[in-house]
Amino acid sequence: xxxxxxxxxxxxxxxxxxxxxxxxxxxxxxxxxxxxxxxxxxxxxxxxxxxxxxxxxxxxxxxxxxxxxxxxxxxxxxxxxxxxxxxxxxxxxxxxxxxxxxxxxxxxxxxxxxxxxxxxxxxxxxxxxxxxxxxxxxxxxxxxxxxxxxxxxxxxxxxxxxxxxxxxxxxxxxxxxxxxxxxxxxxxxxxxxxxxxxxxxxxxxxxxxxxxxxxxxxxxxxxxxxxxxxxxxxxxxxxxxxxxxxxxxxxxxxxxxxxxxxxxxxxxxxxxxxxxxxxxxxxxxxxxxxxxxxxxxxxxxxxxxxxxxxxxxxxxxxxxxxxxxxxxxxxxxxxxxxxxxxx
Length: 343
Prior knowledge:
Pfam families: BTB (PF00651), zf-TAZ (PF02135)
Shape: rod-shaped
Organism: Fraxinus pennsylvanica
Domain BTB: 18-87
CATH superfamily of the domain at 199-342: TAZ domain
GO cellular component, one term: nucleus
Pathway: Protein modification; protein ubiquitination
Helix content: 55-70%
CATH topology of the domain at 199-342: CREB-binding Protein, Chain A
């Protein structure tokens, strides 16, 4: 069985004859032109230029291990630089292998994208093995992510059973990738929660200064008439909770003996504010200056964990201030609605 590719016209206008026979594993012989193959694939060029043991002018190149149809599509791509979606759907895995072995980067890139868009639970492990063998990192990573996200389903496939019996190293790679992905998710989730906490503390510091300097609804500076306090601020939900905590702190009887958790929390907020405040002589927040003097005397500022907390809160405050104009625009209608409901 023999197939011929279209004859080519040379520069001088003469028709060139086929001078290469591509022999597939199924016995199909495809006649081709050496100068076309050599111009597209350096590997085929090397095979064509290799010395022969016989005097025949026609060279034979064997392409084993892939279906005859895949070899035919591969050779047609070398002639036309075109590969249809239908052929990619049918022979994508084989074309990726051929494009890697014979160094045809354009086809390899096309196959990589095509296979990435056709991944399924059933074929993902086969494609993963091929991506590793063919040095296709993008496809390899996508296969790994899909296997990781759908591991329970992948574990039930025949591909996984084959992997366990014949490729334990790849099985280990997949399990390590899943473990590392889960670790990254936990770390990201923990960092997000920590950042949220630092932002809440930063907002609490802002509201504390606001209450102690300007007053807000029912709580304000000690030297200001409560009736003259301002209405709800643009952070009233945070401010209101802090006002309740301040009122409790002022009236609590357990605070003296250190037996009240809410008072301890308020005490820590005062201390945190003092660590951040850069104008203690003008600050109207209670205990601000006293805490700074105490830190200077006892050198408690050398506490590494406390310094880290202060840095994180300051950082969150900076980030918050950079996004303040946008947040003001978003919160404007909500604040106006809140004020109307209180009136």
